[in-house]
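User: Show me an example of a complex going from sequences to structure tokens.

Assistant: Sure. Here are the input components:
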Amino acid sequence: MTGKREVAPPVELAVEGVRYQIDGHPLLHGIDLTARPGETVGVVGPNGSGKTTLLRCVYGALRPTAGRVLLDGADAGALTVKDRARRVAVVPQDASGTLGLTVREVVAMGRSPHKRFWEQDGPGDARRVAEALETVGAGPFAARRFEELSGGERQRALVARALVQDPGLLALDEPTNHLDIRYQLEILALVRALPATGLLVLHDLNLAAAYCDRLYVLSGGRVAASGPPHEVLTEELLAEVYGVRTRIEVHPDTGAPNIVYLPLDGNSRTTAG
Amino acid sequence: MRLRTVAVLLVLAAALAASTVAGLALGAVRIAPDRVFDIVVGGLSGERRTGAFAAIIWDVRLPRVLLGAVVGAGLAVAGTVLQALVRNELADPFLLGASSGASAGAVLVIVFGTGAFAFGMGLPLAAFAGSMAALVAVYAMARRGGTMTTGRLTLAGVAVQYILSALTSLVLVLSAHPDQIRSVLFWTLGGLGGARWDELALPATALLLGTGLLIALARPLDLLLAGEEGARTLGLDAARFRAAAFVLTSLVIGVLVAYSGAIGFVGLMVPHAARMVVGAGHRALLPVAALGGAVFLVLADLVARTAAAPAEVPVGVVTALVGGPFFLWMLRRSTRTEGITG
């Protein structure tokens, strides 16, 4: 409970020994992960390494087969659906089936965890929604039907929806997937600047290195490495986990590791987990 | 409430008044609108008018028009809610088998049991149980494997609807029920001809309570459109809410079908048209769909009893002749936009 103040304080996240299996197939083999309040943590790894499954365990779409997810030290599995939604907001990869809701209506859904089911949105909510739409550059298409938008426009609207949710933890599943490079940078900078703790699944390793405080590299449902980007992203690790040859240097302008991918060489190729 | 919604509701209320007057004036005997007005106003102010016209209007046409308005509104509301529950615009109480389930339940009670149990509520209760069972069956079949496609939903719905209609017809034909063929037509294609004043209270109550409650639940209904996982991350336990909403919707469908038979496509077309006018947010959508459904069914019933006069066409035939092509048009559209599989 946050009392009068609506913005939840940033959440401290701890994932302890989380396993998940479906039909006897283990997808996660005991993941440990932490994010300090306000920290921006990236989860990277090849396709099928368990990134999205881990994220879904964190935001409660999946119940871990074993292990716990702790929000500020309290077991998230014991929270009601609504209490959890007040603290954790999610930007999914995409959404559909909205039967003609407008972008503004979809974004306004983010206010729901703070409302009774029969309660209507007030002027304060409308203002928050308008601000969030401006923040992600979705103002010009706020009145259009959500389903008619391009993938990138939809993604920005979903970010706005998460913003008005006032979360303590923001979980994003490949938030830059459909976006132009300009919006990729804007959205990542926005997430970093928010007071909320951020947990991001990212494909692009250079963006992950530039915008995350710490990274977890998943491989075959296990944590292969974790730590600050410059410690984690090494040529050896990427060869082992992704099966690619790279050149990694600290970029003089950004100070972040900069990865250059080299053409595949049949002899040096290792198989990705 | 937005100005646009209020304007649309006012226009629809005027349309309902106009179609009510038309429903009272037209038929085997034509009565001039000003006479209709006199008789209705006179009747309402307690003055007992005698004469053939007064009897036709007061005893036959008015209860029929009112039942049509109630059933049309209820089916449109039920269709709107079903579409949100399955996140598919092709849902309709009839196409998902709920109306046929209600008919089957009602007929089983009429033929094998007695409608008198449960304080005379046996018929609507059996219809409710039938509609609930059909919806649960269709939903479970369409969801097998975790995802629901338009193809599987509509096929499961149509199959269940056929099976239950066949069962209804079979039971009626084999029973010693007098006037079998007419009751087969009533239960499978609907009819408002049997409307009586003393049987209006229950459907009207079900409509008003059900619609009121569902409008109050507009927010969770909207959240369902974010999908199972999306709704959860926005604070709604979708599975639990959906179960409760299925029960409530089945109740409305069951009570209406118990008095009108299974009338199709109202719950398909009206919500779609309403969405085009006021959008998909349920707080505005549900009242607009309710009034629109009332207007539509009053007019459809007017056509049903005048088009082939003195013979009467089952009202479900009229709604199907309009709604069937509409369904095909929507199916074509949804196939184009979402891709159809399974």
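The lines above are the inputs; the final block is the predicted structure for all two components together. The mean pLDDT of chain A is 90.
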